[in-house]
Design a protein that fits this description.
- The chain is α+β, with helices and mostly antiparallel strands.
- About 35% of the residues lie in helices and about 35% in strands.
- The chain has a 4-stranded antiparallel sheet with strand order 2-3-1-4.
- β2 (about 35-40) and β3 (about 45-55) form a beta hairpin.
- The longest helix has 15 residues, at about 15-30.
Length: about 100
């Protein structure tokens, strides 16, 4: 299992971010290997993020290369650089 964390700044309001996420949800829910998506609001004005739980790194890479993945910067009106961290899950205490 792989966890992907992204953090970005946007020109959108919180309500607009929610609207974009809901509009994308039917397609995102069909992405192969994507087990769970959490939308996050860091404690910094204008920043939002996401936590994605993937079956494999290959699933994550395939999504990032897909049209849906490539549209993230435009859909969310991202300003500047996106922070991305990818981590392998090596153990879970709770199932």
């Amino acid at each position: 299992m792989v966890i992907q964390y992204i953090k970005f700044k946007t020109e959108l309001t919180e309500q607009e971010v929610i609207e974009v996420a809901r509009k994308r949800e039917p397609q995102v829910s069909k992405v192969p290997g994507l087990n769970r998506t959490y939308y996050l609001k860091p404690h910094a004005d204008g920043f939002y993020g996401g936590m994605y739980v993937w079956e494999t790194k290959e699933d994550m890479d395939n999504y990032r290369k897909s049209d849906l993945g490539k549209r993230i910067p435009d859909d969310y009106k991202i300003i500047g650089t996106v922070e991305i961290q990818v981590m392998d899950v090596f153990m879970s205490l709770h199932e």
